[in-house]
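SAMPLE LOG
Freezer: B-3
Tube label: C17
Construct: single chain, 69 aa
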Amino acid sequence: GISLEEMFGELDQIMEKMESPEVSLEEAFALYERGMKMIRQCSQKLDLVEKKMMVIAQNGEEVPFDAQE
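STRUCTURE (predicted):
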């Protein structure tokens, strides 16, 4: 499978291409569709990661997500 880092990298490229003036409307739409699909995959992966983190936190101490230290 593809890692989250790879997905974010590809999303960056998609956004750059969409902002390019040379991209046709059809291309932009195809890129948009692809980007949205990737974002859905990302959020599914992040949900899984979040669930794992919560399980780990429950097994140990509660770990606040916004801990700055």
